[in-house]
Amino acid sequence: MSRRWHEPDTNPTYWEPLIREAEMRGKRLLGHLHEVVAEWERQVPGSAVIMDAWRVPLPGQRSRPGPGLRYQNPIERLDERIGVVVSDCDLQHILSHPKLDALILRLEMVLTELREWAEIEAERRGEKLRLVEDRGITPDVERLLTLCHFPIQDHPLEMQAYEVAATPFQRMDVLRRFIISRTWRYTGAFPWIAFTPNGVIRITTVASERSTREDAETMLRHWEELNPDTPIRVYRTMLADWTRLPEGLQEVYATMGFAESAGIEGLINDRIEGRWAYLFGGLPPERIDSVVRHILGPLMRPESKGLLDTLMSYLEHDQSIARTAEAMYVHPNTVLYRIRRVENLLGIDLRRTDNLTQVFLAVKLYQLFFH
């Protein structure tokens, strides 16, 4: 994965005034957004919620999304979708009235400025991550991370990486804006979002393993609802604390690169662990195909599907006949019989470490590239 870039100045003294100035500008822009939203509420009657193009409610509104707000009223200017007003009545006749043109223009301008400001902040954080990759965590790099409000603490962190899984770089800018909007929601300090050469990374404090997984699944589901024709891939990994950031980045890049070569989409954690990406990441697809067919060939025939499924379950359950039988709802003798048939077909003995290792790795590759 190529990541060419110009190394920035790493002197914190150089960056401190620039970062402070950027933060003040972000606060001013959020203030302007609150003013525009307040003006909208004065001019648009009834119960309504103004959202951006990613269906994120804009801040400072009295109304909240609910079942009673069933009308979707797009806000457009020059055929470009700016946002949507969700309301309890049809507002198109009001939104198309000339008297709202100036307000729609103000809304477009402030949202555009906020988007551009946020993208610069994410680019700046991306530079810091590249410094971590190249130099590790030196005192200067730590200070730069602190200036950018990186969560430096002795608590677990989660890293989520997002990439477009279609044509390289196609609609990547759309994905980045989606992640920014859905994460930031125009409230408070800018979250820790960093642009990477192929996508975007979010780093957050961990509430619980379950909540962070649900967060990634929710983000993925919302993307699929809004962009059904553009698949993405998501990978999440946990850091014991912030000092594990260099290792976390290595794992993310290796796993995302492997997922790209394997054509894996969606939540990658459901298909692969980071350690397997390290092991298999350098193998070209044609070599992987050759290895799998050489070791598992007879089991890849349609009539051998039951045997292959049994072998995969057997390995997944640590070569336990009883647990495999329970998982497959069959008698233990059935599992034992099938495993013996697998050994005969492949000409191996799974009690031998070298045979078991070869088959285990081949099955892992099969599950990633063929299953």
Keywords:
Arc Repressor Mutant, subunit A, 13 helices, three-stranded antiparallel sheet, alpha+beta, elongated, 371 residues, five-stranded mixed sheet, Alpha-Beta Plaits, 3 domains, single chain
Structural notes for this entry:
It is a single chain. Strand 7 (232-239), helix 7 (245-262) and strand 8 form a beta-alpha-beta unit. This protein starts with 11 loop residues before the first helix and ends with a helix. Helix 1 packs antiparallel against helix 3, helix 1 (12-43) runs parallel beside helix 4 (139-147) and helix 10 (305-316) crosses helix 12. The chain contains 13 helices and 8 strands. The strands form 2 sheets. It has a 5-stranded mixed sheet with strand order 5-6-4-7-8, with helices on both faces. The protein has a 3-stranded antiparallel sheet with strand order 1-3-2, with helices on one face. The protein has 371 residues and is of the alpha+beta class. Residues 307-364 form the PucR C-terminal helix-turn-helix domain. InterPro entries: CdaR-like_regulators (IPR051448), PucR_C-HTH_dom (IPR025736), PucR_C-HTH_sf (IPR042070). It comes from Sulfobacillus harzensis.
